[in-house]
């Protein structure tokens, strides 16, 4: 034990469980901790921080006391709050962008202006802080627009408006009713783009980077992309929507210029740059940047990438790290990940439903179950639903069709009252 390096994972969803399993697959023995983690992570041998934490300073204290060698941050909120800066000040190495660099996600006004300044392809837009000016703009445009809160809104700050009436309602909701709170004090109005979407992840030390297999998320709740937006109902990778040639274009026109732009703006981006793309007829354009791994994309990507993750993340986080020195082994096959959600999600959802069948699904070769909104009963005997997105079932296959069939085979084993999941995850890629 003495010679083992220690890692702390921050977060407790399916994405963080997938990061944990990726660490477990690498050959390096590690002592793994999570805050807050989840029961699935605990079952996999990860220790959960069992001390009250009321600030990132508290967590840094805990990390110091427990001699943590590397902290990997999953969600955007701690990154936007500056957790990496807090850890750095204490001499602790943390994977993820600084607070300044996290603005690429936490402020759409920042990221849109960055793209405009550096000629990175994205939808045309205007930034507004007054309702009157925003109204005048949509009236003058009188075309379909997308209205977005500039700040973090848990993936829900986007309103698609096909008519002027819808745009006016959206502006009233944001400026008068404050449906997004402070996140909506600044509003972006942009041109509506049309095309397939893709999620590109570049793990970076700020200069060199490694692009992971490109994933496609399924944002809507219903089959055939119907119904309201969710955090993501499933993903698969790699997506044939992005050819090698297209990926080269994305690197040249988007990834490289974005990293260079961030360095120029004195906000060097270290961590994982997640570029949400629309593949328009005029070429790939940025919908938005995120400063972290995607959920559920991570559950579909990580099973395909074998490497010494401890080294990879440390190379990204260290001052003189070099991601190019990491040896990557990318599986030639496919991975599909299907999310199972609670009844009512993405609206008000049911809780405390008993979940059965996870172990039998997990036992199937090629299938991994990632816990998300799951808690245990007091005796730690039963698993109960506790969140909107409850879990994700991922499977690998030589072909995409095989991966999809295996993932749904796993889903078929798992039951809880009111479980909802899409039946067409990955179908777009077939
Ligand atoms: P975001 O939170 O910015 O990723 O937006 C959520 C979803 O809204 C995206 O995945 C797209 O499906 C859609 N979206 C956002 N911006 C645009 C746009 N300019 N044109 C078309 N769809 C968009
Ligand atoms: N799946 C999209 C996201 O993580 O934001």
Q: What does this molecule look like?
A:
The chain has 430 residues and is α+β, with helices and mostly antiparallel strands. Among the domains are: 5-96, Rossmann fold (3-Layer(aba) Sandwich); 130-185, ATP-grasp fold, A domain (Dna Ligase, domain 1, 2-Layer Sandwich). Helices cover 32% and strands 27% of the residues. The chain contains 14 helices and 25 strands. The strands form seven sheets. A five-stranded parallel beta sheet has the order 3-2-1-4-5. A five-stranded antiparallel beta sheet has the order 12-15-20-25-22. Strands 6-9-7-8 form a four-stranded antiparallel beta sheet, with helices on both faces. It is globular and about 60 Å long. The protein starts with a strand and ends in a 17-residue tail after the last helix. The model has no long low-confidence stretch (mean pLDDT 95). Bound molecules: adenosine monophosphate and glycine. Residues 155, 217, 232, 290, 294-295, 297 line the site of glycine (GLY).
Topology:
Layout: E1 5-11, H1 14-25, E2 30-36, H2 39-43, E3 47-48, H3 56-65, E4 70-73, H4 76-80, H5 83-89, E5 94-95, H6 99-106, H7 108-117, E6 125-128, H8 131-141, E7 145-149, E8 158-161, H9 164-176, E9 187-191, E10 196-204, E11 209-211, E12 216-217, E13 220-222, E14 226-229, E15 234-237, H10 244-264, E16 271-280, E17 283-290, H11 297-301, E18 305-306, H12 309-317, E19 329-330, E20 334-341, E21 354-355, H13 358-363, E22 367-371, E23 374-376, E24 383-385, E25 389-397, H14 400-413
Parallel strand pairs: 1-2, 1-4, 2-3, 4-5
Antiparallel strand pairs: 6-9, 7-8, 7-9, 10-11, 10-16, 12-15, 13-14, 15-20, 16-17, 18-19, 20-25, 21-24, 22-25, 23-24
The site of glycine (GLY) has 7 residues, from loops.
């Amino acid at each position: 034990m003495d010679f083992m390096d220690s890692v702390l994972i921050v977060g407790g969803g399916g994405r963080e469980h997938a990061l944990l399993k990726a660490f477990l697959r690498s050959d390096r023995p590690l002592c793994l901790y999570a805050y807050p983690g989840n029961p699935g992570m605990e079952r996999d041998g990860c220790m959960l921080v069992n001390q009250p934490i009321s600030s990132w300073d508290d967590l840094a204290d805990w990390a110091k006391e427990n001699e943590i060698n590397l902290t990997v941050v999953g969600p955007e909120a701690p990154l936007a709050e500056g957790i990496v800066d807090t850890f750095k000040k204490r001499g602790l190495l943390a994977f993820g962008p600084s607070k300044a660099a996290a603005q690429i996600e936490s402020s759409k006004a920042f990221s849109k202006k960055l793209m405009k300044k550096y000629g990175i392809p994205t939808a045309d837009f205007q930034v507004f802080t007054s309702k009157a000016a925003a109204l005048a703009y949509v009236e003058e445009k009188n075309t379909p627009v997308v209205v977005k809160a500039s700040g973090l809104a848990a993936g829900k700050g986007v309103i698609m408006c096909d008519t002027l009436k819808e745009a006016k309602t959206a502006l009233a909701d944001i400026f008068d009713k404050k449906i997004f709170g402070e996140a909506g004090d600044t509003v972006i109005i942009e041109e509506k783009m049309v095309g397939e979407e893709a999620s590109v992840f570049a793990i970076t030390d700020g200069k060199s980077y490694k692009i992971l297999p490109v994933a496609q998320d399924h944002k809507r709740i219903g089959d055939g992309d119907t119904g309201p937006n969710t955090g993501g109902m499933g993903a698969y990778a790699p997506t044939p929507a992005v050819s090698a040639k297209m990926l080269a274009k994305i690197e040249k026109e988007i990834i490289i210029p974005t990293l260079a732009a961030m360095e120029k703006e004195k906000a060097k981006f270290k961590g994982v740059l997640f570029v949400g793309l629309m593949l328009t007829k005029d070429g790939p354009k940025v919908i938005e940047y995120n400063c972290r791994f995607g959920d559920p994309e991570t559950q579909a990507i990580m099973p395909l990438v074998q490497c010494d993750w401890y080294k990879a993340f440390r190379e990204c986080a260290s001052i003189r790290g070099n991601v190019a020195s990491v040896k990557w082994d990318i599986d030639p096959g496919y991975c599909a990940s299907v999310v199972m959600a609670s009844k009512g999600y993405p609206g008000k959802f049911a809780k405390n439903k008993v979940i059965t069948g996870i172990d039998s699904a997990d036992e199937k070769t090629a299938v991994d179950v990632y816990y998300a909104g799951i808690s245990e009963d007091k005796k730690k005997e039963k698993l109960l639903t506790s969140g909107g997105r409850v879990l994700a079932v991922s499977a690998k296959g030589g072909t995409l069709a095989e991966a999809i069939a295996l993932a749904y085979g796993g889903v078929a084993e798992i039951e809880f009252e009111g479980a909802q999941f899409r039946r067409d995850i990955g179908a777009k890629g077939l």
